[in-house]
Amino acid sequence: xxxxxxxxxxxxxxxxxxxxxxxxxxxxxxxxxxxxxxxxxxxxxxxxxxxxxxxxxxxxxxxxxxxxxxxxxxxxxxxxxxxxxxxxxxxxxxxxxxxxxxxxxxxxxxxxxxxxxxxxxxxxxxxxxxxxxxxxxxxxxxxxxxxxxxxxxxxxxxxxxxxxxxxxxxxxxxxxxxxxxxxxxxxxxxxxxxxxxxxxxxxxxxxxxxxxxxxxxxxxxxxxxxxxxxxxxxxxxxxxxxxxxxxxxxxxxxxxxxxxxxxxxxxxxxxxxxxxxxxxxxxxxxxxxxxxxxxxxxxxxxxxxxxxxxxxxxxxxxxxxxxxxxxxxxxxxxxxxxxxxxxxxxxxxxxxxxxxxxxxxxxxxxxxxxxxxxxxxxxxxxxxxxxxxxxxxxxxxxxxxxxxxxxxxxxxxxxxxxxxxxxxxxxxxxxxxxxxxxxxxxxxxxxxxxxxxxxxxxxxxxxxxxxxxxxxxxxxxxxxxxxxxxxxxxxxxxxxxxxxxxxxxxxxxxxxxxxxxxxxxxxxxxxxxxxxxxxxxxxxxxxxxxxxxxxxxxxxxxxxxxxxxxxxxxxxxxxxxxxxxxxxxxxxxxxxxxxxxxxxxxxxxxxxxxxxxxxxxxxxxxxxxxxxxxxxxxxxxxxxxxxxxxxxxxxxxxxxxxxxxxxxxxxxxxxxxxxxxxxxxxxxxxxxxxxxxxxxxxxxxxxxxxxxxxxxxxxxxxxxxxxxxxxxxxxxxxxxxxxxxxxxxxxxxxxxxxxxxxxxxxxxxxxxxxxxxxxxxxxxxxxxxxxxxxxxxxxxxxxxxxxxxxxxxxxxxxxxxxxxxxxxxxxxxxxxxxxxxxxxxxxxxxxxxxxxxxxxxxxxxxxxxxxxxxxxxxxxxxxxxxxxxxxxxxxxxxxxxxxxxxxxxxxxxxxxxxxxxxxxxxxxxxxxxxxxxxxxxxxxxxxxxxxxxxxxxxxxxxxxxxxxxxxxxxxxxxxxxxxxxxxxxxxxxxxxxxxxxxxxxxxxxxxxxxxxxxxxxxxxxxxxxxxxxxxxxxxxxxxxxxxxxxxxxxxxxxxxxxxxxxxxxxxxxxxxxxxxxxxx
Length: 1080
Prior knowledge:
36% helix; 1080 residues; 8-stranded antiparallel sheet; 34 strands; alpha+beta
């Protein structure tokens, strides 16, 4: 068992740490692979691996069979320096004799036992002589020297020794992308799994995008290769071609990221082309050694370097040469005894990848159909492996296949070895990671900031300063934390007694100094002896949350009283103490408890150095979702994580009993603290709203609220609510067509005292600008939210920074649109105004100062009146109008309001001092609303991108379900070599509830969707459409008999829910009489 003492001895060696995360689409085999990696440490049995789903600790995860929460576990992996697999560029190794590759960590238990004998000091000893310590065996009882040899010296990656691998298993469902963001932020490398049958899917692109954004170095694992032989019935050559196509698909996705970034840099620098730095490129190739081929279900996996090591002992070819030629267009020439570019005419064979890699695997799988029982034993002898008879006798063919291939190519050794060889250690990767998540600012200076930044870039564990980032709060319960704390105390007592007994058995002490067990009632034990022998256990409440964090610099210790500061996102080191008091909290390090996460369990430790992930207890009331912990107040906090999913599905929760309202509100607070991608808000009508990323995410949040955070509170949940947006078109309303020649877009309003008047105009915002502001809403929200609560000079400074950032986004969007116009000639309507506009005249965004609407002051230069003394009132009116549109009081999107003129009467009191803010707000708000109502209003609804896979037999029924829910098919492709169709469509979020269950019911479970938020789409129907012309009246009928269109139906539904007035006919057919039957 991995104890806290072992963890503390290994984690101080930064070069021997690997922080990796497993990324993949749903059902591509992440959790199954993680199970076999966990089983390599003896935590679970190999027989239960793949079935127990060890890292899925929630009950609903086990029931649904999907991962919903990221889970971390610390594993040990022995990387023998004799057989350490280097990259192809390294020097060749001599031929070595190795025994069977039975299991990746077959001697792990003995290594763990030897760790207990390592002395606490781990100073570098004298250099070992050549050949010393290379004996195969060691006498019993002398394990300390063997353990020291296995630890090796800290140095280059891939050298021999025992590594600690912090494995983070992330969800594959699109609703839980925030969990993937956490895993990527804390990892130094990623293991990307791809199902070779399904290929690159929607979530595969998403996780690759997140890894690219964090500059995370990744390795590729092609999983479920067994299906190529068992389901698709591919030959070895067909399987080889199929695998190459999948690799090309992945590289095409990653290259698109590099091209997009290069194009963005070119636009910023006004250059036609910018070359991308190849050292940051994400390219996968078997020859580079960063691809593993595996079948997690059948427990086998390998890399090209693994098989190069294996065949170097069989073929007269060096391992270095085989590592470059085992994959690709190379043929083995039996005459010249080496790989060649062309096949031999006398002895034609296929490429070496087919002959020496895929054909042996295909032959093992083909035995199930050929029924050659004797051939299996021959294959075992040819592969030179040892398979126990209990794994062969009386087993099914599939179990025999797992036994043979699992012994020949153990998956744990392949994946963990690949992570150790190809993925960087924390010190190597943290330099690039810190540069991206902790950007330097000109406003931040000082020796403390510079020294801490240097320590973070170097991953310096000896730094006196401390830097920790908390990504989320894990709800594990107070009972679990108490058990972990007391287990350490009880475990220390147990190990002390075992040591004393062993010393007594060896004759080193006369008697074991342990408390004797009383067998006679007359025998008494003194109370002080009991107190000394029994540790003092914790019983007090210590919180229910663990902060999931990573140490970037220094070493956090609980055995000393160090002052730590918790910095929230709004903290500014240049602001005053009064302005920062709501963004900083102070705590002593001795008040915290540190844990190493072990999946469902965790081990308490006293210190954690830089480069390690950990759990921290004691921050329940101080950290909501994320925060930066440091020992220096002169540094800014680390940047917040960007989540790829947007919360769009919401429900209202209300308790059945009003006295339970306080407990429900506390439960909502805990829910928000436990899930960073949940939004909890209170509407103006008093409803408490929960906003989630999707239907499955909503179900999980409601379950947590009922069973964990608000237990015993009976509350009702409203039907799922979908947020809409409102916008305008560049046209006047049809109702005023008769006066179209007289209409004008300018609106002038004055207050009752006639000492203030304003002229405004509303125009549509170009789509490129609206999309740019929408995509960066989280970043803008961070800036403006901190400015909103700062006050004083800090508020003005941060608000100015936010507007500078917004203007820069708009400038980039305009440049990008200009480039698109030159290349493709697709110019947007009304774009010339924005090309000529001075962006410094954009004075506000809305709603909530971060939306995709802008307020522009376009008054002529030299105007006497200044907007400065009334800017706050005008900005407030703008926010009010943008927050509640005219259709159904939904937020506006894609609207630009232009201030054409403004007059203020200065005669009374000078500078308009007699004008109240209320008068200015009311007048300006009325002007803004009237300018919007002149234009044609439209409703915008959110759209899902749905990806489905089904066979041809249910394709027709699938289309029927999509069409019934207003879906729109955008592509339909037949997967090569299969009878499976890949269908992509757009589906309105408003019609997506129950879509998955309805689809499974109609297709008998042969199709399941994957929904991901795509975009906002304007509904083309006019909600106020009335037939005006004779042609329209003839086609649609009169206004009296006209049925409400889709847009009007949606608008009326939202207005009814909000309690607003709705124009509807109570009596539709007064001339008709009908008697309703009364059922008794």
